[in-house]
């Protein structure tokens, strides 16, 4: 005869398992929706993509929601903030001294490190040049780096650097994952690329040097490569 105690079902345990399974399923679909939104928004970096997914469980505040004043009593750690700034300044100074001494990055990771710490990014690009930049980022362009390069070149461009800047724009498409980086350009970054090419074209128009004039055909090719005439442009 069967033991009724052994056949007894633990409904509390089943209910708990069902609840956990439903939470796991809800989390999966919530994060999946967040990933799809991030792709549709064409976020500028993997960090932004990760943050959107990580914050998928948060809900926006409504008018009836109130933030307790007791939660705002904790002061900021001003000492830690000051130390962080000092550390950042020291790293920036050390990086610029090393670059000035000719110790340029050898790979994508080193370039990204120096790029984040360097204050004069335009000078860094002019120092490295297109040919070396292509070798440095042969494996891949760091997430968000392409757009930042285009913005920096456009913001600090001077006509005297037309040939060097064009060389950089020509070499970047040969770097790893260029197409992916291009797809993730923001509207502002695409606008910077368009303005930069227009500035290069203007420098050709105003310069009688034959070498500079020969850049016109190359600039037309660059316009196609960087999709400056696509429907997505600003």
Q: Which structural class fits the helix and strand makeup?
A: mainly alpha
What is the helix/strand order? HHHHHHHHHHHH
Give the rounded overall mean pLDDT.
76
| Helix content range | 55-70%
Q: So how many helices?
A: 12
Low-confidence stretches: 230-234
Q: What's the gyration radius in Å?
A: 26 Å
The tally of strands reads 0
Q: Distance between the terminal alpha carbons, to the nearest Å?
A: 80 Å
Strand content: under 5%
How many structural domains are formed by the residues? Answer: 2
Q: Note the overall shape.
A: elongated
Biggest beta sheet summary: none
Structural commentary:
The chain has two domains: 11-56; 93-225, no CATH class. The protein is built from twelve helices and no strands. The termini are far apart. The radius of gyration is 26 Å and the shape is elongated. It has 234 residues and is an all-alpha fold.
How would you summarize what this structure contains?
The protein has helices spanning 4-7, 11-41, 46-54, 78-100, 108-117, 121-136, 145-156, 162-171, 178-183, 187-205, 210-213, 215-225. With 234 residues, it is mainly alpha-helical.
Topology:
Layout: H1 4-7, H2 11-41, H3 46-54, H4 78-100, H5 108-117, H6 121-136, H7 145-156, H8 162-171, H9 178-183, H10 187-205, H11 210-213, H12 215-225
């Amino acid at each position: 005869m069967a033991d009724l105690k052994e056949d007894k079902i633990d409904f509390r345990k089943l209910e708990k398992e069902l609840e956990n399974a439903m939470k796991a399923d809800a989390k999966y679909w919530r994060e999946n929706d967040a990933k799809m939104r991030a792709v549709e928004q064409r976020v500028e970096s993997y960090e932004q993509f990760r943050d959107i997914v990580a914050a998928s469980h948060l809900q926006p505040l409504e008018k009836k929601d109130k933030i307790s004043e007791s939660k705002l009593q904790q002061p900021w750690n001003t000492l830690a903030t000051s130390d962080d700034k000092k550390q950042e300044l020291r790293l920036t100074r050390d990086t610029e001294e090393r670059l000035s001494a000719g110790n340029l990055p050898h790979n994508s990771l080193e370039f990204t490190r120096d790029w984040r710490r360097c204050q004069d990014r335009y000078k860094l690009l002019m120092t490295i040049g297109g040919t070396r930049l292509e070798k440095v980022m042969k494996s891949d362009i760091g997430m968000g780096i392409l757009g930042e390069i285009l913005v920096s070149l456009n913001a600090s461009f001077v006509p005297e650097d037309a040939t060097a800047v064009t060389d950089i724009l020509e070499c970047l498409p040969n770097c790893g994952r260029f197409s992916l980086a291009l797809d993730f350009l923001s509207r502002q970054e695409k606008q910077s690329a368009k303005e930069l090419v227009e500035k290069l074209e203007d420098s050709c128009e105003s310069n009688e040097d034959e070498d500079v004039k020969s850049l016109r055909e190359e600039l037309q090719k660059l316009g196609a490569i960087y999709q400056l005439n696509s429907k997505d442009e600003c």
